[in-house]
Amino acid sequence: MSKNSKDALQICVAYVSERLRHHNENMKNDPFFLGVNGVQGIGKSYLVASLAHELEQAPHDIRTIVLSIDDFYLTHEDQVQLAADHSENPLVQHRGQPSTHDLSLALSVVASIRAKQETSIPSYEKSAFNGKGDRKLQTQWTNVNKNGQQPVQLVILEGWCVGFRALDDTQLTALWTDALKQSTQGNSYRGRLGHNRLENVHFINEALRGYDSLTDQLDALIHLDAEHPQYVYEWRLEQEDQLRRERGSGMTNAEVMIFVDGYYPSYELFTDRLRSGAFENRDGAQLRLVIRKDRQVKEVMEL
Q1: Do residues 243 and 127 touch, judged by C-beta distance below 8 A?
Q2: Which of 14, 104, 105, 266, CA to CA, is 20 to 30 A from 162?
Q3: Are 303 and 274 in contact (CB under 8 A)?
Q4: b/e per residue 6-23 (b: at least 16 CB within 10 A)
């Protein structure tokens, strides 16, 4: 989404307001948990920040906080250990994929907020260890639901893999086999799944099953769905170019391409499942916005 377009924001404000109204009528004002999924560079963080700001203002006046799946990454020490334990798997040599998050920490934070208890929100420093990253010290975390504060009413959890569901082994193998076949038939294949070993993507898929416990905590999900997943490369290049201009340093274009390559197999595997709906028997609990290459909304669907 471009910053000069308010279509997506207006759509999301209306959707969340209605879901909250329904939720409060049935759940006695328990906190509402909203997931937001979208590929890197699609405008997810900008939309989430704008949505949170809008909902905290009159006439909504909804106490809102934003969590990022990134803030639940493993500590640097644990990520190094994971990489060493699976040294043959390039998909887990750096943070990002399912298996590189601390699900126990994420679930404990969600449970504490849901119980309206004072809760420390973790934060992750991506620049630590020369860009490899590390969790910040707990003294640097933010506390919510402190005495005298209005309790949190809306929690927005945003991230590139929020809402993804694992595939069964038959589906996984079929998708990988097809990708492998395409990757060996000339230069038309533009994905990355076919360039990874089956056992390595199987490891990611199995790890993703554990994320169901987090996805099941969501009351609703907004899916910012790139009309074509390949847009992520151009969007991420644009994003890094802006960072270089603002900070004077950043990844090169080649490094950005390699960076996105590490995520792309999961887009190939799990996007179609998300498009069909992350929840069963919960009509209207998912909003899908199809996003064009110019980041404008092409289509809106409730699932």
Answers
A1: no
A2: 14
A3: no
A4: eebbebbbebbeebbeeb
Could you tell me the CA-to-CA distances from 175 to 88, 167, 172, 180 in Å, in that order? 21, 10, 5, 9
Q: Which of 64, 72, 66, 63 is nearest to 48 (CA)?
A: 66
Give the CA radius of gyration of the chain.
Answer: 19
Residue 267 to residue 161: CA distance in whole angstroms: 9
Task: Give Cα 85 distance to the centre of its chain.
Answer: 25
Per-residue pLDDT tens over the stretch 94-145: 999 999 999 999 999 999 999 999 999 999 998 898 888 999 999 999 999 9
| Cβ–Cβ < 8 Å for 211, 98 | yes
How far does CA 119 lie from the centroid of its chain?
Answer: 21
- Residue 130: both structure tokens together: 């020369």
